[in-house]
Amino acid sequence: MGRATGSTARYLGFLFPMAFLLYVNHAWLPVGATTQELLRGFTATPDPTASSFQPLLHNPNGTFSLGFLRNGSSQLALAIVHVPSSEPVWLANPTRWARWSKPTELFFNGSLVLSDPHTGVLWSTRTDGDRLLILDNGNLQIQKLDGSGSVLWQSFDSPSDTLLENQNFTVQMYLVSSNGLYSMRLGDDFIGLYAEFKAGLDQVYWRHRAMEERGHIVDGNGSIYARISPNGFLGMYQTETAPIDVQAFKTFQRPISGIRRVRLESDGNLRGYYWYDSKWVSDFEAIDEECELPNACGSYGLCLPGGGCRCLDNRREYSSGGCFPQESGDFCNVRGENDAINYWVLRRAGVELPFKELMGFEQMGSLEECESSCKSNCSCWGTVFHNVSGFCYAVDYPISTLVSFGDGSKIGYFKVRKIKEEKKRGVGVAGGVALLVGAVLIFVGVAGFGTYRMWRRKKTGHGIFMEEQGLSHDSYRELLRSSSFGAVELCKR
Ligand SMILES: *[C@@H]1O[C@H](CO)[C@@H](O)[C@H](O)[C@H]1NC(C)=O
Ligand SMILES: *[C@@H]1O[C@H](CO)[C@@H](O)[C@H](O)[C@H]1NC(C)=O
Ligand SMILES: *[C@@H]1O[C@H](CO)[C@@H](O)[C@H](O)[C@H]1NC(C)=O
Ligand SMILES: *[C@@H]1O[C@H](CO)[C@@H](O)[C@H](O)[C@H]1NC(C)=O
User: Fold this and answer.
1) Which atom, in ligand 4's list, is nearest to the CA of 388?
2) For residues 407 and 213, is the Cβ–Cβ distance under 8 A?
């Protein structure tokens, strides 16, 4: 089972925000135009006239449809969509999109295969089945037709960002947010949400341990699994007899006629929804404080509890997406240079890590000791020191959002990579040069105008009055001075 790890997947993920999926057109082909079962020999290619979704197969009651989902004008994913809402609930190839054009082909030869003659097989179930169908719960299955009806493959076993009601989520599975940044997996006794802030490093930012109120985890009874119950909760189980944990939704134990789903969203939250009155209503949120999201205000952002975003660096205006460019990697092995050349240090008091209780720390005697442990470690991006407890938290991934925390006893130390800054400085110098050139032009203009006026004064005799209104020689010298001063200011920034 492929999981979207590695930076390629991450950056590919960036390019395909879920947003486009919201624009999926409701006006599809009638469900009757497709079929409820596909057999060996089936092939399909993308239809250039299909605006957003091209259905190929649907379940008996028509709620779910498998087909080609468009991303922009040229990209294609094989998807299962909840028909009434047009919401995709499963993608075969979330990190490797195909092209919406003829050479892309879907066929079923025992395996369901998405291929393109240029890149070859993009995605395959690698099975030897006889038929393909979608069950009423939204599960796409490849079955054998030898009387046993055995299931060789099912989409429920390789979810993308969504879990549907009654879908078992096991320790072998992952949910990955559509932007590829966040994932959900199970541990021995917990559900964890992880952020891949740095390639190969998964930082846990939310963890829910089994309460073991009704059932207990028994060694040797197998791994745990999770499932959304029609009764309105996310349950953890070890056996079917009783859940070992129940995370109740707002509609806990309330009969709901529509289906339920949870999705790991692009902001890193896990949200639950139920289908009611022709829309999805949210009834569960793993993280309910915005500042506790893994990266609420972007890189080097500062989240104010209940009050939006700022920049860690007070001088910068906050804009969504963060205050400094999103970084990757660390400061190790940068062309053999001294680390200190590659970054400058940003300090800020009154900040807190958003999920510090899930991060490691060391007790240290002083702020200086805490900071220097990071300074001398090229894989460290920053620290937050609590001067009352002496706890020193090291951040070993590029700095994301911090949380504003009233008193000044928590002091942040953050490395900011220089390379990008130098480019900015280059722009600053260019701006300064432009200003100087502008000033010279004004000088030439004013001098020219002065000459013209002198010529006119000679002609008209109204010179003295006009001289007072216009720019004197001293004024444009002042203008020139203030312009070059501005350029110096820009250079310093
Ligand atoms: C189905 O097609 C794929 C891709 O061409 C191929 O690798 C696979 O062997 C085929 N499977 C069967 C059962 O023929
Ligand atoms: C989920 O797992 C349970 C226990 O193994 C099983 O009885 C049930 O059929 C599974 N459900 C699905 C949809 O696979
Ligand atoms: C450097 O920092 C990383 C991440 O914080 C840590 O795992 C590692 O042990 C540190 N190395 C040293 C030599 O302190
Ligand atoms: C912690 O830092 C704050 C702000 O700098 C300071 O006022 C306070 O005295 C410090 N406390 C200790 C125990 O050093």
Assistant:
1) 13
2) no
Residue 109 CB less than 6 A away from ligand 2: no
Same domain assignment for residues 384 and 451: no
Q: Shortest CA distance to 373 belongs to which of 396, 350, 354?
A: 396
Same domain as 132, residue 165: no
| Among 98, 93, 94, 100, residue whose Cα is nearest residue 13 | 94
pTM beyond 0.85, yes or no: no
State how far the Cα of 198 lies from the Cα of 23, in Å rounded to an integer. Answer: 31
Distances (CA, A) of 219 to 227, 238, 239: 21, 10, 12
Q: Are 292 and 355 in contact (CB under 8 A)?
A: yes
User: Two tokens at 142?
Assistant: 């490849």
Domain around 92: 26-157
Question: Cα–chain-centroid distance for residue 383?
Answer: 24
**Ligand 3, pocket residues at CB < 6 Å:** 377, 379-380, 394, 396
Which tokens belong to 243?
């859940």
pLDDT tens string 385-399: 998 999 999 999 999
pLDDT of residue 475: 36
Ligand 4 neighbours, Cβ below 6 Å, are 349, 387-388, 408-409
**Domain contains 425:** no
Backbone angles phi, psi at 267, to 5 degrees: -90, 0
Retrieve residue 257's tokens.
């006629």
List the structure tokens of 157: 């076993």
